[in-house]
Prior knowledge:
It is a peripheral membrane protein. The protein is of the alpha/beta class. It has helices spanning 38-41, 70-74, 80-104, 117-121; strands at residues 2-4, 29-31, 53-57, 112-113, 153-156, 167-177, 181-191, 194-195, 199-206, 211-218, 225-234, 244-253. 15% of the residues lie in helices and 30% in strands. The longest helix is centred in the middle third of the chain and has 25 residues, at 80-104.
Amino acid sequence: xxxxxxxxxxxxxxxxxxxxxxxxxxxxxxxxxxxxxxxxxxxxxxxxxxxxxxxxxxxxxxxxxxxxxxxxxxxxxxxxxxxxxxxxxxxxxxxxxxxxxxxxxxxxxxxxxxxxxxxxxxxxxxxxxxxxxxxxxxxxxxxxxxxxxxxxxxxxxxxxxxxxxxxxxxxxxxxxxxxxxxxxxxxxxxxxxxxxxxxxxxxxxxxxxxxxxxxxxxxxxxxxxxxxxxxxxxxxxxxxxxxxxxxxxxxxxxxxx
Length: 257
């Protein structure tokens, strides 16, 4: 049984007989997309973990792409009716959009077990544990026999618009060069199944021999990594034309470690 942002008003805090609960089926998975408090935030979705596994994409409260200005949202790509509905309850309705995308992407929407969204964002819950991570949505039940806790809270990030799934990588860059410079470092991943855009790993003072780490959520699962493109740029014109390189770049895949 899959709960798509089960309702908060009149249901949160009530006995399990009147709301969705893990006793309702052999396996209950829940996607929380609008779990901010109803007052004052107009959250329509229930906050606590109530299934065997509970997914909190983007933290479960505010979905990317839902903060667009009302005019662009109402005159939506999917038509005026869809846009108007999204304007009123965009976060709440993301749950079924994620679910429908999950059918097309069996390897997408990996949920990382974590105590909180902040810890997930800072990389504390990366990579997946040895038993792997469940996939939010249609294929969540593949994880059914691997659960050994009462409640399992899972976090992940999604895109702003279709297609929604993102794949998480840890990228570590050790710089080489003669002198420290100011600027930024970008990295793009190339793989057997596709390439990513450029992601900023760090900016500010760049010191040779220092190591910089970033967690990136890529719009494509690159598969086996075949190449990494490294770019750095001065923030301003430097007449000494400093040179900076990458001594090593390490890429860790969340899914298979």
